């Protein structure tokens, strides 16, 4: 199967360090974001930031345009104390007080263009800071945040009382609510922090996020963890009346996966066969043919969802027509707006006889913001050479969207996925479906149980099961895996099959047979 032109669906979101040529655009976004004269940094300040601490200055680029940014500094917070002002902590805006040997990252601003506030740009910038904090082995992130709704309640309560009510969800403040939902804890109110902020009455909230991976410099054996959160979606197959209804169901699962801050959401194989439920076509190959007509809608839907909810999506699989042939294709939609595809390489007898599906001929390993991954669709996980090739090319997580008619079919997928995790010292993820659609081929009878699996050793969960669902029930199964633990296990595990494989395996197999 050749690569189709998908560039029109891809508007890439890039989080990167600010460069000098970006400064003019960043200043415009900052002024639009604050909407208050005298609050935003000026060009001279941003230029000083990138000259002194370039790693700590981030921007978000969307379709070639700067739409968000943030600035940071490293300090020893104890040297400033709880009653500091913004000018003190920022070195009068120039960060000349940046201390490379400090242990705290201090956030100076987060600005987002008002027209792009539904793309989770602030969340992406906060995540960039968290990564930086872990990278530099810093103890915590702190900042003084605005409280722009306080002026509405200033005649009724103190700043501390207002924040308490917002934290308890009895009142709403757009900044405080956003920060607490992103894992920051309120420490105290900073009076006279921002002289130009009339809405906050010059007050600010001192917020902190603690880096649980921090280790004092004396810990010579310390290694940073590389956690990844995965949501495997046990999709409910039910009849729908339109593509819009299908879209709403998919968005529900993506939205709830994003709420728990998952890095990946995984849908089951042939998820778009649900679209055949409102078709008059009843012949199996005709149903698959009908589903292929929704390819552009499918690509646009999941590309938009990945960007909107800032999550990488393995969007199950979809039947695609190319050169008068039908292929079963899985897509990786990255949260930065780009995507890639993987064809199913082994076609089951039922797919051949009922749908006439053709096999692909290329196994890919994809780069993501959380390591390298591969996708083996359903039947493909039964063939150990595929997972081995993916692992040899750097894949650390193998995703398997599957569709099973009965428990035996599910168990073949599950046991092989666990075997691949053990053999290759990788994580494997399977995503199945529940429910049924009487008139739809491949969806009239389902057995689904989704799970996340690891190698089996002391460093991993008992029996190698990170998380799993109950069978045949609609569910989102979420679990955390750690790529650094995986790396260490490959080097120093009780057994190290990746390192112990026979390099001369062809001659070795010939010899023993």
* CATH architecture name of the largest domain: 4-Layer Sandwich
Q: Which shape, going by the Cα principal axes?
A: globular
The total beta strand count reads 21
Structural class: alpha/beta
CATH class group of the largest domain? Alpha Beta
Mean pLDDT reading: 91
What is the gyration radius calculated from CA atoms? 26 Å
Poorly predicted residue ranges: none
The CATH homologous superfamily of the largest domain: Carbon-nitrogen hydrolase
Summed up, the domain count is 2
How many individual helices?
15
β-strand percent reads: 15-25%
Calculate the terminal CA-CA distance, rounded to whole Å.
36 Å
Organism: Siminovitchia acidinfaciens
Pfam family, one: CN_hydrolase
GO molecular function: acyltransferase activity, transferring groups other than amino-acyl groups
Protein name: GNAT family N-acetyltransferase
Label this structure with key terms.
7-stranded mixed β-sheet; 8-stranded mixed β-sheet; alpha/beta; 2 domains; 21 strands; 513 residues; single chain; Aminopeptidase; globular; Nitrilase/N-carbamoyl-D-aminoacid amidohydrolase
Task: Describe the fold and architecture.
- Strand 12 and strand 13 form a beta hairpin.
- The mean pLDDT is 91.
- It contains 15 helices and 21 strands.
- The longest helix has 18 residues, at 407-424.
- It has helices spanning 23-34, 43-52, 86-89, 121-135, 159-167, 174-181, 243-259, 284-292, 295-308, 349-355, 384-392, 407-424, 483-492, 497-500, 505-512; strands at residues 13-17, 58-62, 65-75, 104-112, 140-145, 185-190, 204-210, 227-237, 264-266, 312-314, 318-322, 325-333, 339-343, 366-368, 371-375, 397-401, 427-431, 433-435, 451-453, 465-468, 475-482.
- Strands 8, 9, 10, 11, 12, 13, 18 and 21 form an eight-stranded mixed sheet that branches. Strands 1-2-3-4-5-7-6 form a seven-stranded mixed sheet.
- It has 513 residues and is of the alpha/beta class.
- It folds into two domains: 11-210, Gcn5-related N-acetyltransferase (GNAT) (Aminopeptidase); 228-492, Nitrilase/N-carbamoyl-D-aminoacid amidohydrolase (4-Layer Sandwich).
- This is GNAT family N-acetyltransferase.
- Residues 228-483 form the CN hydrolase domain.
- Residues 13-212 form the N-acetyltransferase domain.
- GO terms for molecular function: acyltransferase activity, transferring groups other than amino-acyl groups.
